[in-house]
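Researcher: Good morning. I'm working through a list of sequences from a screen, and I'd like to move beyond sequence-only analysis. For each chain I'm collecting a predicted structure so we can compare shapes side by side. This is the next one on the list. No need for commentary yet; just the structure.
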Amino acid sequence: MRKVGQIELGTLTEGVAFSPDGRYVYIANWGEQNLVTYQLEGDNLVAVGTPLKLPGHPASMRGSTP
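Model: Good morning. Structure tokens for this chain:
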């Protein structure tokens, strides 16, 4: 594992999960009540689409690989 970039996240990030192939990262933000997806492009993290608004505050999130 290596650091490839740095981005500003929302207030009180509650959960972070990676896709099984490691190309996407999913961030749950408590303050904004949303889920944001980023894609790894080379050495940059790029936001994908628009944040998914959640009906309440996310409490936690986890991911698993097959």
